[in-house]
Structures are given as structure tokens and as C-alpha cells.
Amino acid sequence: MKTIKSYLAFAAIIFSLVFTTANVNAQTAPQIKNVVLVHGAFADGSGWKGLYQILTKKGYNVTIVQNPLSSLEDDVKATNLALDKQDGPTILVGHSWGGTVITEAGNHPKVAALVYVAALQPDNGENSIQWLQTAPPAPENGVLPPDDKGIAYYDKAKFHAGFAGDLSKEDADFMFASQGAFHANGFGTPITKAAWRTKPSYGIVATEDKSIVPSIQFAMYKRSNTKITEIKGSHVVFISQPAKVADVIITASKKQ
């Protein structure tokens, strides 16, 4: 009888340990492993490399969209193609103009949450330029008017200070050289269905941003009840502070 009681007590301890371990693992393990990254204007997908390395080392499946930057519709299509390939729920991340893209593409059924990184976040019927005009631009901002082909570029003389002020000049020069040809009509194209209205949203305010000034970022994120994280960094905070940006994405992956 004593042996049976001892066995039952031992079994209870083992069960408790297994249950506790499983519970802890359930609380710490991310529920969502897929992350899709969408770059903005005057950039390409190569800027995500540092963030990609951090997330993949933690077990995430990361896909980087190469936006054609030819129109909002084309960038949304490129993002949807990447989302179609995911094997389950996905965190969709957009930087700068990429925020406008994920606001539309985020309606994809595989998108579980949105993360805006120093990004635009229009509502239904709104376009990007409306928000960019809600506050005076920083003196360092170097977005040039569209050329005769309708393509907007960033002034090379202002790119380092205005776009990537916390990177080395060498890295900023590489970013300038690799920027995509952004068709400016995208800034004027309105959103038809804002995904943040139905999907959980997280927003990073880059407090040293000279391209989308922080007051605009705060105004958009507060209006949409987006969960805000402030990070000291330039417009390319995802390059200068990849670990902190990764933390926000990881939080989003565990909250859904």
C-alpha cells in the first residue's frame, strides 16, 4: 500500500513538472513564425539584412518583398504574392511608404498583425501625401519633385542627414546607390480598405526621423489605436537599431 502511495505521489510530481514546463513553453514560444518585410520608397530590400539575421536566428521564417515601386497597386500585388507563399499566420511589417502598402495588403487572410516602422498609415480614402503635408518637413528632408517620367528621388546631398543620419556615410552612400525608382503617383493613391481597422497593429516611432517627422507618426498611430514603441533612431531605424525593431515584431508574434 505504501509502495502504491509513493508511486502515485511520484507520478503527481512528474505530471506537475511536465505541465509546468509545457505551460512555460506555451507562454514563451511565439505563436506566429512567419514574417514578411516590406521596404519603402528610396530603398530596396537589402536594408532588412540585419533584422533578417536576428529574426531567423530566433527561428522565424522571414520573407523580404522587393517592391517594384511603380504604383500602390503593384506594390500591394508584390506583397500579396509573398503572403500567398506563407504556410500560416504572418506578421506583416512595413517601413515608410511600405506602411501604406501593408495598410492595403494587410487584408490578406494570412496576416495576423501589422507592424509599422517609421511608416505611413492612411485610413480609407486617404493617401500618403495628405499625411506628409500635415507638418512642416525637416530641413534635412531631401525628397525631390518628380522628374519628367514621374519618378521621385532623394537628393544625394541630403540623403545621409535626411534619410539615414545614424548610419555611417559609407552605408548611407550604398543605400542611396541602391534605391528603387519610386513613381510618385503612389503617394497620391488612396487606400480602399485599411487593414489596421481589423488587424492588431504595432507602430515604431523613430524619434530622430527627418523624412517622416515623429509628430506625423504619433498622430497616425494614436488615431488608429496602434500600440506605440519609441526608438531613438533615424528614418532607417530598422537598420541602425535592428534588435529593438525585432523586439516589437517578436512581441506582435506572441500576442496573437
Automatic annotation (TrEMBL):
This is AB hydrolase-1 domain-containing protein. PANTHER family: AB HYDROLASE-1 DOMAIN-CONTAINING PROTEIN-RELATED, ESTERASE_LIPASE_THIOESTERASE DOMAIN-CONTAINING PROTEIN. InterPro entries: AB_hydrolase_1, AB_hydrolase_fold, Sec-Metab_Biosynth_Hydrolase. Residues 1-26 form the signal peptide. Keywords: Signal. It comes from Flavobacterium johnsoniae (strain ATCC 17061 / DSM 2064 / JCM 8514 / BCRC 14874 / CCUG 350202 / NBRC 14942 / NCIMB 11054 / UW101) (Cytophaga johnsonae). Residues 35-248 form the AB hydrolase-1 domain. Gene3D superfamilies: alpha/beta hydrolase.
